[in-house]
Amino acid sequence: MAVQVMLISPALNAALREARFDGDAPLDAAGVRRAGAVAAGVPAADRYLHGPSERCAGTADALGLRAGPEPAVHGWDLGRWSGRRLAAVSTAEPEAVSAWLTDPSAAPHGGESLLGLCARAGRWLEALESAEDGGDRRVLAVVEPAVVRAVIVGALALPVETFWRLDVAPLTLTALSGRSGRWNLRCGQQLSPTPDPAV
Questions:
Q1: Rounded to an integer, what distance in angstroms lies between the CA atom of residue 171 and that of residue 97?
Q2: Distances from the Cα of 98 to the Cαs of 20, 61, 107, 144, 146, in angstroms?
Q3: pLDDT in tens, 9-36
Q4: Over the stretch 128-144, which tens digit does the pLDDT of each residue have?
Q5: Closest CA to 154 of 129, 128, 183
Q6: What are phi and psi of 176, to 5 degrees?
Q7: Is the pLDDT of residue 181 over 90?
Q8: Which of 24-33, 56-65, 109-118, 164-173 has the lowest average pLDDT?
Q9: What pLDDT, on a 0 to 100 scale, did the predictor assign at position 23?
Q10: Within 10 Å of residue 105's Cβ, how many Cβ atoms?
Q11: Is the pTM of this model over 0.85?
Q12: Exposed, middle or buried, 153 (CB in 10 Å: 0-12/13-18/19+)?
């Protein structure tokens, strides 16, 4: 049976505005307002989830979703770089940042490699597809942009380096429908106050 997986990227927070490796920074007041303004545009689903970060949980709340935390879609673990500015890390550890950007197996920060992130996201998508509960055919999850990108890479069997070429804007909807090996993708749809009946 076909599954529809809808992913919403969370609203901006101060860490993203400052180009920081996010860590677990909460959603700020501006992000709460922006999410609340588009809450009516969130499509209906059988099951609602959110990544365990404060930013994802706060976005789900601001969107008015009764979403439960899903540990399998936590954000990219960037180890000791979490919370630091990208510019500062690039200055202090240029070789490490270069390796991180060019070698999908590298994890110079001591956290998760890009390959590891994509594999984890792929396992989560497969688990949704193989779930025995046929009632959860439309799943909506608020997840970090890196997780959205990793899910797309896995679902479409793209080269892992494609991850770096995908942009996921805040409060956008990415929808996958189908099944393993045959996913259709609709990406980058802005949430608006009026729901889109085509989703």
A1: 28
A2: 17, 37, 11, 23, 18
A3: 999 887 777 777 876 778 889 999 999 9
A4: 877 645 556 899 999 99
A5: 183
A6: -115, 135
A7: no
A8: 24-33
A9: 64
A10: 10
A11: yes
A12: buried
Q: Which amino acid is at 64?
A: G
Q: Which residues contact residue 102 at a Cβ distance below 8 angstroms, ignoring those fewer than 6 apart?
A: none
Q: How far is CA 199 from the centre of its chain?
A: 18
Half-sphere CA count of 177, side-chain side, radius 13 A = 9
Query: Once rounded to an integer, what is the mean pLDDT over residues 1-11?
Result: 91
Identity of the amino acid at 63: L
Instruction: Please say whether the beta carbons of 155 and 3 come within 8 A.
Output: no
Q: Pull the structure tokens for residue 20.
A: 């920081």
DSSP alpha helix (H) spans, 68-159: 86-92, 94-102, 114-130, 145-155
* Tokens read off for 95: 């070789």
Distance CA 196, CA 150 (A): 25
Run of H or E residues at 139: strand 138-142
- Tell me phi and psi for residue 39, to 5 degrees: -55, -35
Q: Tokens representing 41?
A: 């545009």
Q: How far is residue 105's CA from residue 97's CA, in Å, rounded to a whole number?
A: 13
